[in-house]
Amino acid sequence: MKIDRTTSSASIISETRNRTGGTRPADGAASEVHLSGLAAQLQSSAETPSFDVTRVGEIKEAIADGRFTINASAVADRLIVSATELISTQRRA
Fold first, then answer.
1. 69: buried, middle or exposed (CB in 10 Å: 19+, 13-18, 0-12)?
2. What is the pLDDT of residues 21-38, one digit of tens each?
3. In whole angstroms, what separates CA 75 from the centre of its chain?
């Protein structure tokens, strides 16, 4: 089977850009972008670490030293709470 290239990639890209270009502001016109509250919240949360680096280091050291113990009861309790929250949010949706 032979595949014949009758159009170049550059012309396809050019055509796609022309169709989806939309409107552009006039020369010298300023463009403004407004973020929703959720987008702003997500952006600010991305700037702060989602975990405590010091605490992770302490746990890593305890594991290496063999001092780290797992509290199975606490893990189970938190797992149940998490599952309950997940189920309740899915019922509301």
1. exposed
2. 556 666 666 788 877 888
3. 26
In one-letter notation, the amino acid at residue 3 is I
Q: Could you tell me if residue 34 is inside a domain?
A: no
**Residue that the structure tokens 């113990």 belong to:** 69
| Reported pTM | 0.37
- The residue whose two tokens read 């030293």 is 65
Asked if residue 26 is part of any domain, the answer here is: no
**Would you state the structure tokens that stand for residue 24, as one six-digit string?**
């552009």
Residue 42 has pLDDT above 70, yes or no: yes
Contact 62, 70 (CB under 8 A): no
Q: Which token pair is 57?
A: 């280091």
Evaluate whether residue 52 is within a structural domain: yes
Collapse the DSSP code of 21 into the 3-class scheme (helix H, G, I; strand E, B; otherwise coil) and give the result: coil
